[in-house]
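User: For a reading group we're discussing how well predicted structures match intuition. Take BioF2-like acetyltransferase domain-containing protein. Before you show the prediction, I'll give you the sequence so everyone sees exactly what went in.
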Amino acid sequence: MLILGADQVDAAAKSRFLAHQADVRCYHAPAWLAALCEGFGFRDCTRYAVENGDLVGLLPMMRRSSLRGQRECVALPFSHQVPLLASDASVIPRLVEAALELAPRLVVRDAVALAASGRRIDSGSVTAWVDLRDGYEQVSQRFSSMARRGVRKALQEGIDVTLATDAAAVDQFYELMIETRRRQGVPIYPRRFLHAIRRHFGLEASRLWLARDQGRVIAGLWLLLFQGHVLYAFGASRSEPEALRKRPNNLLFDRVIASLCNEGYPTLDLGSAHRDNAGLIAFKQGWGAQMAPITWRVWPEQCGFQPIARTGALVGAVSMALRKMPVPLYLQLSALLIGRLG
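Assistant: Thanks. Here is the predicted 3D structure of BioF2-like acetyltransferase domain-containing protein, as structure tokens, for the group to look at:
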């Protein structure tokens, strides 16, 4: 069995392999890997396993320094669940061995059920998804009463939801993201990351929906699509209470779910939520989302890795500081921190 780097495998072979994988996600897409490298300056250390001329395994990963300055390979940063793809269990040790030649620690954001080594850890988060197979009429019956009221409120307020196709929409959405993530007290992604996503995925596989109030953009929802997997990648909205009271996010989700049902997509992946974030979990459950805990696996087993804490006095103090600091300083600090956190 040979272990090869991404630049040693041609694009056609990668596409053929991914086309036959049941567990493939948007995070396995070459476009996502390219966007991560461009957006954050990561080194793409993805490894492929080849046997008798055929691809039999894929471990997508980036090498970076952690918040504590430790070198690590991560599959993948800013990706909530990334299955290691392997034809059988014998492929996994070879891919792991190759990763540990690049960095002293490997973090795979998946349980890797076939693995006989490594240490399983609780990520602290849950994944959420909406089953769309019954069609919009039945799916919408599973919306909570609060979600449905929000949709009606947005319609009464005259909120307009459209699919954006112009390049300027990315910058409009980014301004919303600055407001949203600063309001949440967390660092923001670089602007170039979102532009790289749009460029590499293209318009059809990178769908940016915007909600407008009398022509002014007040909320947005960004989907990524790859081989039948639909991911709710990003969401953002204005901070002022008057805009939020008009419930633009509710109408966005309703229209997106209706569109995906009409196109025949089986599920909508709503990403993850930390278990302590009761509000976000309730919002996702309001759309009929199912939930499951996310387990990761790390190598070597004795390494002391744990997911970054989301609660506690220090986290609270940093979050408060990010919310209150001027926007230019917030953007500068985000640029220093974000690549080590996601």
